[in-house]
Amino acid sequence: MEKTKQYNLLAYKQRNRRDGDDSTAIDRRTMNELSDYFRIRFTLARRCTLACYSALLALFLGLNILRPEGSLTTWAMQTLPLLLVLPGLLDNRHRSYSWLCFVILIYFTAYVVEVMSPLFVWTDALALALSVVIFTAAMLASRWLQHWQYHAAQADGGPVPGPPGTS
């Protein structure tokens, strides 16, 4: 509850500063506390994203490689879109988490159709649940990573980080 109060205080101070009132300037201690607040939340969302991401890849592996009726081609087609964002996820790039949200919507759409069909299998429901959790966790991780980077830069007194490749 205390962190929420501090975050609301920060929003109030930023609004006042935008309006020209510098008497309520945010001190470094508040920025450090906010940086820690977002770092902890990002870490939790990142762990949840990576755990469900790994579980979805393992599910595809189990369905397509380990079973006799599976095929390597189907496995490659299912996993390639997910593997495209993996380097960015491992480097903690917020845009990769956002792209993962876009990519996972394809899986969500496909598995909603599978779950609603008469040929429903429990693995379809598992994949649907994993895609929902990945989408939510990746969206939160992306947002909290951006906030963490912003507040960490403000606490250090440095410039606010921009997109890669900009000065």
Automatic annotation (TrEMBL):
Pfam families: DUF2069 (PF09842)
Annotated keywords: Membrane, Transmembrane, Transmembrane helix
InterPro entries listed in its UniProt record: DUF2069_membrane
Keyword Membrane: yes
Keyword Secreted: no
Segments crossing the lipid bilayer: 48-66, 72-90, 97-113, 119-141
Protein name, as recorded: DUF2069 domain-containing protein
